[in-house]
Design a protein that fits this description.
The chain has 259 residues and is mainly β. The protein has a domain of 86 residues. It starts with a strand and ends with a helix.
Amino acid sequence: MSKALGNETAEEGQNEEQVSEERDGRSFDLSKLGIGKVTASYDENYDFKGMIRMRTEMFDKGKTEATMDIDMWFNAEKGNLGMESQTVTDEDGQMIKAVAIVDAGNRVMITVAEMESGTPGIIMPIPDSLSDVTGEEPSSDDAGVEVRKTGGSKTICGYRCDEYEITEEDGKLMTRIWVTEDLKMPGDYRLFENQQGMPKGYNKLPVNGAMMASETYEKAELQSKTEVTEVDLHASHSISLEGVSLMQMEMGKWAQKKR
């Protein structure tokens, strides 16, 4: 069942013309950030069948700085995607949980954070232009990005993967990725690129498969690595938005913040 929260957000005290937030007695105009009342439609519950589980590690001077576990869910019939992530960020093991959903039918992307104070979320209408979606300029920003198929390969979770190298910033940034064409993922999962740390040139690879592993180096020093640890195309799962406090944001504004 799809719904729009325009009336509900108004009832929660958000102004029809301007959304503001109170902090320390001061009012901030969130509309300047492209944030406003929710007018887009979405579903209260999303069902999925098929999952890829991966782990990402971020490094600082050779030491693990944070670890992120990601479950990517699919709905081939509707083209919807779901992503649930858990990030351990400090020595005390503090956990940050987040959810992202691409709703192909309603053409929106929803991101939700689980916090002690509640579960705030952002809903963003998906524009038709892929450059607006990814926040990438097709010409100037991609200048200097080189993609090379190395000829190397390895098997990950039973899938044969070809190796590619993507270099940026005159070679200062290099990402090595392993991609399989034997695993097809429905929907446009490129919307999750910024959240997975994928390189800029990933969406230009001449493949239609899935990235199964990656390693990113800056000035030859390892910054992050990701690898798929499990593939279960028969697993079922649901993601509910019950109790989530949503606000609407322009996709372009979100893309600019991600750069």
